[in-house]
Amino acid sequence: MYSVVKRLLIGTPLSSSELEGQRLTKRVALAVFGTDAIASTAFATQEILVVLVPAAGMAALDYLVPISLVVIALLVIVTASYRQTLYAYPSGGGSYIVSRENLGTGASLVAAGSLMVDYTLTVAVSIAAGAAAITSAVPSLRGDELQIGLALLALIAVANLRGVRESGRLFAPPTYTYIAIMTLLVVVGLFRVATGSLGRLPVDQEALAHFTGREAVLAGASSFLLLRAFSSGAVALSGVEAISNGIQAFRKPESRNAAITLTWVAFILGALFLGIAVLASHLRPTLRPDETLLSTMGHAVFGNGLLYIVLQASTAAILTLSANTAFADFPRLSGIVASDAFLPRQFANRGDRLVLSNGILVLMFAAASLLIAFGGEVSALIPLFAVGLFMSFTLSQSGMVVHHWRGRQPGWQGRLAVNAVGAFATGVVTVVVVLSKFTEGAWVPTIVIPLLVLLFWLIHRHYARVDRALACPPGTPLPDIVHTVVVLVPSRVHSGVLESLAYAKSLRPQYLHAVHVAFDQESAEGMLATWAEYRFDIELDVVSSPYRALTRPMLQYIDALDERWQHDTVTVIIPEFVVHRWWEALLHNQTALLLKARLLLRKGTVVTSVPTHID
Amino acid sequence: MYSVVKRLLIGTPLSSSELEGQRLTKRVALAVFGTDAIASTAFATQEILVVLVPAAGMAALDYLVPISLVVIALLVIVTASYRQTLYAYPSGGGSYIVSRENLGTGASLVAAGSLMVDYTLTVAVSIAAGAAAITSAVPSLRGDELQIGLALLALIAVANLRGVRESGRLFAPPTYTYIAIMTLLVVVGLFRVATGSLGRLPVDQEALAHFTGREAVLAGASSFLLLRAFSSGAVALSGVEAISNGIQAFRKPESRNAAITLTWVAFILGALFLGIAVLASHLRPTLRPDETLLSTMGHAVFGNGLLYIVLQASTAAILTLSANTAFADFPRLSGIVASDAFLPRQFANRGDRLVLSNGILVLMFAAASLLIAFGGEVSALIPLFAVGLFMSFTLSQSGMVVHHWRGRQPGWQGRLAVNAVGAFATGVVTVVVVLSKFTEGAWVPTIVIPLLVLLFWLIHRHYARVDRALACPPGTPLPDIVHTVVVLVPSRVHSGVLESLAYAKSLRPQYLHAVHVAFDQESAEGMLATWAEYRFDIELDVVSSPYRALTRPMLQYIDALDERWQHDTVTVIIPEFVVHRWWEALLHNQTALLLKARLLLRKGTVVTSVPTHID
Question: Which one of A298, A347, A512, A515 is most buried, counting C-beta atoms within 10 A?
Answer without folding.
Answer: A298
